[in-house]
Amino acid sequence: MEIKANAGDYVSVKLAKKEIKGIILESYDKDVILVKLESGYNIGIPKENVFEINVIRKYKEEKKEYKIPSSKGKPKIGLIVTGGTIASKLDSRTGGVKALTDVGEFAQFYPGLFEKYDIKISSPFMELSENMDSGHWKLIAKEAKKMCDDKEIKGVIITHGSDTLHYTSSVLSFMLKNLNKPVVLTFSQRSIDRASSDAELNLECAAKFALSNCAEVVIVGHASESDDCCYALRGTKVRKMHTSRRDTFKAINCKPIAKIGGKVEFLEEYNVGNQNIEKLELDDSFSNKVALVKFYPGQDPGILDYYKEKGHKGIVIEMTGLGHVNSGWIGKIKNCVKSGMIICGTAGTIYGALNPKVYSTGRELEKAGVLYLKDMLSETAFVKLGWVLGHRNWKGKEKEKLLENFAGEFNEFLAG
Amino acid sequence: MEIKANAGDYVSVKLAKKEIKGIILESYDKDVILVKLESGYNIGIPKENVFEINVIRKYKEEKKEYKIPSSKGKPKIGLIVTGGTIASKLDSRTGGVKALTDVGEFAQFYPGLFEKYDIKISSPFMELSENMDSGHWKLIAKEAKKMCDDKEIKGVIITHGSDTLHYTSSVLSFMLKNLNKPVVLTFSQRSIDRASSDAELNLECAAKFALSNCAEVVIVGHASESDDCCYALRGTKVRKMHTSRRDTFKAINCKPIAKIGGKVEFLEEYNVGNQNIEKLELDDSFSNKVALVKFYPGQDPGILDYYKEKGHKGIVIEMTGLGHVNSGWIGKIKNCVKSGMIICGTAGTIYGALNPKVYSTGRELEKAGVLYLKDMLSETAFVKLGWVLGHRNWKGKEKEKLLENFAGEFNEFLAG
Description:
Two copies of one chain form a homodimer. By secondary structure, chain A is of the alpha/beta class. Chain A has three domains: about 10-55, SH3 type barrels, CATH 2.30.30; about 75-280, 3-Layer(aba) Sandwich (Rossmann fold), CATH 3.40.50.1170; about 290-415, 3-Layer(aba) Sandwich (Rossmann fold), CATH 3.40.50. Chain A contains eleven helices and 23 strands. Chain A has helices at about 105-110, 110-115, 135-150, 165-175, 200-210, 300-310, 330-340, 360-365, 380-390, 400-405, 410-415; strands at about 10-15, 20-25, 30-35, 40-45, 50-55, 75-80, 90, 95-100, 120, 155-160, 175, 185, 215-220, 230-235, 240, 250, 260, 265, 280, 290-295, 315-320, 340-345, 370. In chain A, helix 5 (about 200-210) links the parallel strand 12 (about 185) and strand 13 (about 215-220). At the A-B interface, strand 20, helix 6 and helix 8 of A face strand 20, helix 6 and helix 8 of B.
């Protein structure tokens, strides 16, 4: 039979023994119709099984109007919108998620934020975070610097896709030198127009933290699956650890900086009052000639030559255990180091610190010139390597800079 | 001054204001002597600060004799020794860890095991696990098959370095078809001659599990930092998650199969009595033309061409979030798939399952031909891809085989 309903239409579908109601979704298989049921589940029905389809309500894109309320007397927060799920809505035609088209639409979805605070909003671009690179990082850093320089602004919120958020939080930790107020990255795992969305609480807690007396780059997100409080996690020691859970970001090798419920409760050991009085400096040099390689058993070390021949200046190797790769790699590593490349090691286990002294492989790799980055996360190491190599004036001092604790990327007890 | 002591000697060192005692370690810096103190700490002393060194006791390698006790009436367990820390001892000359040279020496270090059980021991090789590849995996699988075919043997223990143990447990789960008894991999994070060693409890629990009525490949190791019980973890759903903690192996996306304290307590939901009555089959084909690539922001998709030009037949991409890479990769992925390569996706977050339907990037990547491996671990996916592509008779059915749940590599509720 011919189907006369279109994606987005609310329909009733007659089958042999029952009738179902739902929204037609775009289907990749022309012989199957895809229906989103009221329960939220999608089902696929072979067209040959359908007796009749009646359109109950035609698809119409909703357009809400939202007037941003007066800012008089409210604390001022900078808001940088960069895209991602937190700036997206459900597309009823695909059943998937679609980006909001402008910042005005963003305000419409988060009226609570604009009612409580005087929000200065800007958006350097709208991009899914898997598509970001160092060019996007620099644009965000520039925008954050501008916001931090505005004396009226108490703190800055950056909304961002969650996929690569920990890379951005790391690189901003390095690029924003002498930070003078909180820079808070936040995200959502589910878009705001879904009942289970984490966007509202994440933004609410991000705003509370943005008004705190601290000066770090942090990620703020759900502390657990419940919808009651968030954690603030240090930008250089955080990682996305679950594909879909709302408490996906975890502090790695350290504790969260603060818990944010009714108010911001800092961790006992945390030294809050470290806002810089010097002028914030934008230190955004970055070399793209860096790579991150996850080692796996039997891997050909030719991958090192590949990057060497491409003119790469540095490689982070995600190693096994305390810092090992196949000992057949040692020769190639020596060659790379001799040619001037920086070869760093990080822990593929994610948790824990490297120690090259325990096993012969580690001792030989260290002798071959591998720089062991202790308890630094692979993702943080990758962006730090690009940032360090971007500084021409640090030529010859790269290793020293990589081991310097710029933004809490090393735990002090381990780095000491 | 000239130092007349050698590495391994127990000495007294006179400094300006104090005298210290300890064992001389091999030092990489000729101007520094390295001393292991009785406290276990190492200190480096510039030679110029040393007034005098007196050798109290010269280094002598200890050779203990150990007679394996009679096996009469004891349950029989197969033991395959492959190297790693669990088959290593402290080297007093380097302060590091050194492999035991033969299996007899292994028995000497673990007398408890040989007193309780009738151990049939064999060692196909002695290797650190970072140096293993598919050749080693096949040798282990062959040895395990032999042991499983011996009707008197109740179960098999494999001792192995911890670094890549989860790759081996995965590949054995696929290679040992119709498994008829427990195959238990175990390890240690600290060598047996250290007070904090986890080797003894791990082996003891591995032996208990080897006598159980189950037929799976598992990893047995400390359940927590305490020295009281272990977990048995499914071979395809386990990962090393800490560089040094004793409870480093964690069940990913599922629960442990059993807790092993005084006895083996299976998880309530676990169906134990699944020992096969068919003959165990060694299914050890493996293609090395596979790679594992961790995606990071800004990464050049040229890495795909590199592997294609090397004649690789398949690549596992560790993706961001629900299964994304930079959308600039889509063209190259299409080319690879067209040329006959299998491109699979796994979750870089480690925890959670992929879902390509939620975001446009995922939908486009799926259309380009990426095979989404749901909640399968990257490491498991890598060895499964090599194993599937090793089967010439599966030509054309590779995707179907990759999605078949051979050894619990998919959680059923997700795979269904």
